[in-house]
Structures are given as C-alpha cells and as structure tokens.
Amino acid sequence: MRTINYCLKVISVSENFSKSIFKLIFVCFALASCNLIYGQEEKLDFEMPESYQTEYRELPSDYSFLNDTIGFVNSVIIEQDAEIEQMWWQSLNDVLLDSLIDVAIKSNYNLLIAQQRIVQSREAMRSAAAGFFPAFDLSGGWQKAGSSLNTSNSAYSSLIPRYTSYFNAAVSASWEIDVFGSIRKKYMEEKNLYKASKMDYNSTMISMAASVATAYINILTSQRLLNVLRSNISSQKEIVDITQARFDAGLSSQLDVAQAKSTYYNTRASITTYETSFATYINSMAVLLGCVPSSIMPLFEKLLPMPQAESIVPVSIPTALLRQRPDILVAEYQLKAQADALGVAQKEWLPTVMFTGSFGFSAHDFDKWFREKSMVWQVAPVIKWTVFNGGARSAAVRSAESQLQQYVDNYNLVVLTALQEVDNSIIAYKNSVRQNLEYKTAAVEALSALNLSIELYKMGLSAFINVQTSLQTLLSYELSLAQSEGSALIDLIKLYQALGGGWQIQ
Question: What integer pLDDT is reported at residue 374 of this predicted model?
C-alpha cells in the first residue's frame, strides 16, 4: 500500500509532464494497434488465397499461381478422380510389414532429424512473431567512482566531491512500430518456411515408408531366390545320382555324369551371391529401423509369404498429385516464403518507426533511492529513414527477385518431375504384373519339360543333353519368376510413392 501511495504521489507531482507522455504513448499504441488489427489474420493463421498473386508492382505477371495452385505456373491443370490411401502398405495385408513401418516411424533417424527441423523452423517463426511486441529491460545496481582533482582549472574544483556513489534502478522499453508491414512480411516468410518444414517431414515419411517396404520385399525376394536354388540343387543332386546309376549299369557314358555334376556344382556356387544380397538387405532394413541387424535377423529365418502384387490402385493419371505430394507443397511454401522475403527487401526503402523509453530512480543514498526527486525518465520516439546507402537496397531487391524466379522455376520443375515419376511408375507397374504372369506360365511349362525329359532319358529314348537343358531352363525361369514377383511389388511401392501416399502426420 505504501508503494501504491507513493506512485500516486509521483503521478500527481508530474501531472503536466505525464499528460504529454501519455498522449505520445497513446498515439504510438494506436498506430501499433491499427497495424496489429490489420495483420492479425495473417499473423495468427495465414493462408494463401486460392488465386495467389504477389503484391510487388515490380514483378512480372508470371509470378502468380493458378487457381488453387494446381498445375504448373501458367500451365496445365490436373484433374482428381480419387484419393490415395496414405497408409497404403496396409493394403498388402502383411502384418509384419505394418509392424516394421510402425517401428521406423518412431526410430528412423531421418524422420527424427526432420522432426527437429520442424521444431527449429517453428521457433524461428515465433522469434519473428516477437517483433510485433515491445521489449522491456530491467536494470539496477550500485556504482562508485573517483575523479581527479588536478584536471580542472576552476577555482571551485576543490569543493567538488572527489568520490561519488549512487544506487539506480530502471525499466527501459523499445518497440519498432510495424507501420509499413516489414515485421509482418518477415513473420509470413518464417511461417511459410515452417509449413514447408512440415511438408518436408511428410516427404521424408513417404521415402521412409517406401524404403522400408522395398527393403522388406527385397528380403522376401532373396528368400525365394535362395529357396529356388536350394530346391534345384536337391533336384540336380537326384539327377547326378540317376546318371551315376545308369553309368554304373553300363547304360550311359561318363559324359552324362560329368555334365550332371557340372550343372549341380555351378548351381551350388551361385547360392553365395544370393546369400550376400540377403544379408545386405537385412543391413539396409536395420538402418531404416534404427537398430542393429542381429535384432531383426530372427524375423526372417524362415520363408515368409510374399504379398500379392496385383493390388488395385485408384489412379488413371495423376489424381490428387499436386495436393498429395509433399515435395510439391514444399516447393510451393518455399516460393511463398521467398515472395515475402522480396517484400521485406522492398520495405527497406521505407522509414522505420521506433519508440524507446525508460523510467527509474537514482540516488546517492539508499534511503533516498525511491523518492520523488530521485526519479529519472527518458522518452525517445525515433523515425529512421536511410536516404542513401550506395545502392545496397536496390541490389538486395534485385537479388530477392532473382531468387524468387529460381523458386518459380523450381516449382515448375518439381511438378514436371512428379508427373514424369507417376507416368513412369504406372507403366512399370502394369508391365511388371504382366511379366510376372508370363513367367508363371513359363515356369510351369519348364517343369513339365524337365519331367518329360527325365522320363525319356530313363527309358533311353532321349540324350542327357535334353535333361541338362531342361534343368538350366527351369532354374532360370523359377529365378526370373521370383524376381518378377518382387519387382512387381517394388514397382507398386514406387507408384504409391510417386502418388504421394505414405504419410499421416500433419
């Protein structure tokens, strides 16, 4: 209560001065409030209008988006016919794959890094938003100083105290009034970069999900290739035994035995290549999951079923491509941010309005510190306008315009690349499914040919070379069949990735 009474006393003593100060503060706050009200919508939840057009009069007309930012800048619009399921891997009906992707979402280091980039960008946006508000500083302390008595020519210098000390405490404030919108433009730039960082996270999510699924299919494909080799090695060993028995019985020559063994040992030698590939894919999966290979090796000790490749994808030619693919949204937000950066550079031509002030107390004696006569204050509204700086502002504006054009070109390039990737993926997926069906038929016929050649060889109606050729043909077709099954699934994964499927965190 004592402090309140003292403050009221100070105000009454300084009434005339205070009226002037309060008038000035009121004018500054009114200007700031008008600016904050004008920019409140964009500051709190800024969204680009459907037809985006930069406000900078020096920009050419081609620096504008089409309606709803769909399609190239000044180019084609893409029609949407269906929405892509974000968790597309669940359509493969593989519980283990679902679990592996869930683990990767929590542990993949690329995703963790992308999360921290979101945090970094968010704090940069908040830092830019702080420019809308004044800054206050508190200071206080005690100071003692001594002066020389031999540096003054005054006759009264001996009467001046040599040593002085005093206590001080003050509150100071500074505020840049955003009259011309420079701070607001900077905030909008950082907000668009923040949105771009979230889309970059989604893009990383797409790549991660596709990489895990691809590594998983490669592991299952390697399992099948090894299983085909082992099965053929077993069959070829039986053929070696048959030729050896016929040779021992005098029904065939040593050549048949040598040829059978040659095929047998060649197949055994090739198994090491596929074992190396299997281990490599396990290591790749471990990196994606953020763990060591030994922790996931037990999951793949036995042969696992391969998902079906003939999935139905709701796409004719890119569906919601431009609103679905995060990399396109990243390019869009970066373009908007650079447009705002150009606005910041252009507003450097305009004056800066600053309001600074301080209020406090200072006294030699502690008991007089907070008395009326110890009060000190300062008010300093300032308008700063750089009239000439050697062309630096013009160069900065031209540089920002050049960067903006680069982002426009980059946006067009990203869209064009996306269209190309989707088109290529659709063609590759359709052809790989058709190839897989053909290899299934070929493998069935090769097995029938092998059985027939063996029977004819046993009856002495056919040469062993036919058996050997059938063995090699069957092995080749079965390996191709296993590889084509994996390739079809990988092409399906690439198609979903190209369409922007595989993220669910906004």
Answer: 82
Q: Are the C-beta atoms of residues 224 and 485 closer than 8 Å to each other?
A: yes
Amino acid at 46: F
| Mean pLDDT to the nearest integer, 495-502 | 81
Confidence band of 157 (pLDDT split at 50, 70, 90): low
Does residue 471 register a pLDDT over 80?
A: yes
Query: 452's torsion region: left (phi>0), alpha (psi -120 to 50) or beta?
Result: alpha
- What share of the chain in percent tops pLDDT 70? 77
Helix (H, G, I), strand (E, B) or coil at 124: helix
State the pairing for strand pair 163-177/375-384.
unpaired
* Single-letter code of the amino acid located at 77: I
Question: 323 to each of 66, 273, 328, 505, how far by Cα in Å?
Answer: 13, 43, 8, 15
Cα–Cα nearest to 85, from 315, 355, 292: 315
Residue with tokens 């009326």: 372
Instruction: Give the whole-angstrom CA distance, residue 184 versus residue 347.
Output: 11
Q: Is the pLDDT of residue 139 over 70?
A: yes
Distances 53 to 65, 71, 165, 185, 186 between C-alpha atoms, Å = 7, 15, 62, 15, 18
pTM: 0.74
Confidence of residue 156 (pLDDT cuts 50, 70, 90): low
Q: What is the DSSP string of 299-357?
A: GGSSPPPPPPS------SS-SSHHHH-HHHHHHHHHHHHHHHHHHHHHGGGS-EEEEEE
How many C-beta neighbours within 10 Å does residue 243 have?
A: 25
In contact, 403 and 469? CB cutoff 8 Å: no
Distance CA 497, CA 88 (A): 10
Amino acid at position 173, single letter: A
**Cα 45 from chain centroid (whole Å):** 21
d(CA 313, CA 488): 13
Contact between 236 and 265 (Cβ < 8 Å): no
Q: Locate CATH 1.20.1600.10 in the chain.
A: 52-131+183-350+392-498
d(C-alpha 214, C-alpha 285), whole Å: 9
Please give the single-letter amino acid code of residue 429: Y
Architecture of domain 52-131+183-350+392-498 in this structure: Up-down Bundle (1.20)
d(CA 319, CA 457): 58
Q: With bands split at pLDDT 50, 70 and 90, how would you rate the model's confidence at 370?
A: confident
How distant, in Å, are the alpha carbons of 186, 403, 406, 470 from that of 392? 19, 16, 21, 79
State the pairing for strand pair 352-363/375-384. Answer: antiparallel
In sequence order, the 6+-apart residues with CB closer than 8 A to the CB of 308 are 92, 93
* Strand 352-363 versus strand 135-146 pairing type: unpaired
